[in-house]
Amino acid sequence: MILCPANVTTQLATPYFFYESCTTHLLCFTHHQGVFTLPFSQILDLGSSLFHRKKEDNNLGVTILEALSAQFPESSKNTLRRWLASGRIFVDGSPADVRAQVEPNQKITLGTKREPLRLGAYIVYEDSGFIVVDKPAGLLSVATEKETQQTLHNLLKRRFHRPHIVPVHRLDRETSGLILFAYSNETLSSLKEQLHKKTMRRSYEAVVQGRVEADSGTWTFPLREKQDFHVVVDPSGQSAVTHFQVVKRRKQTTILSLELETGRKHQLRVHCSHAGHPILGDERYGLKGGRMRLHAKALKLIHPKTGKEMHFKSYLRGLEG
After folding, report:
1. Which of 172, 228, 234, 282 is catalytic?
2. What is the pLDDT of residues 197-216, one digit of tens each?
3. For a surface tag, which of 2, 70, 206, 213 has the fewest beta carbons within 10 Å of its beta carbon?
4. 3-class SS at 308?
5. pTM of the predicted model, to two decimals?
6. Smallest Cα–Cα separation from 171: which of 125, 204, 199?
7. Do 284 and 109 form a contact (C-beta atoms < 8 A)?
8. Is 228 assigned a catalytic role?
9. pLDDT per residue over 217-236, tens digit each?
10. Measured between alpha carbons, how far is 279 from 266 in angstroms, rounded to an integer?
């Protein structure tokens, strides 16, 4: 098991440690061949108590509350339950609830508190070069001819009083999740180059209509934007590549993990629709019915100044519902 507070992830040279950088104290441990090895001697060794006791009962699993209580003895059970209720605790990358069971080879992550902005947006990460924001559905990324004020871009400019804030990429108004803004031309150029060279990875989660039979695959439908701003599949259009993987199949819908290789306008929405599985709630390319179930869940990039690989994740409760 590994326990780390944060939501920004990089990998160390050793294969057994998982480092997550954050504003709070780094706290990691890992289980390997029945022995718990800790990078910091002051961190509690769960292997000498909790899992040892469980092993005698022929059950290495513990509840999430037991694991958290052993690691954070100064925190009350009510505090730990609040962490779980607020979505700050993840097991192997998925949000955990109070009933979760944890095995020794699983990773527990304690996410940092997100700083709230207005209009339902949250700051996930910020430094002198760029900012990563978790955008809610229904909020424009940038201004349009019809709306210039109620946008995330305008909110950031007013909030930070910076003369230069530029979107590195965009999210549709109906799409929620991670979006990236640069604070300088130098940073913008570096991040745009990563997009162009496809070293920046952007992953989404969507709920689509019908059962997708293939476990994974790639859609390569070329796209063209019409004069009415509607995007269609057209052999003469721009190349567009989407990788998909089934997360879960249900009776009438499928949850997909989607990764962009290219970033055309409405690419994921049109590709899903053309494949016969429109995204739920997509009124333009599918059927009406509630919010559009498309969420930008993960972003991987190379820091323009440090050269370190950085991972950001966002989890949206209720996406499946």
Report:
1. 172
2. 999 999 999 999 999 999 99
3. 213
4. coil
5. 0.71
6. 204
7. no
8. no
9. 999 999 999 999 999 999 99
10. 12
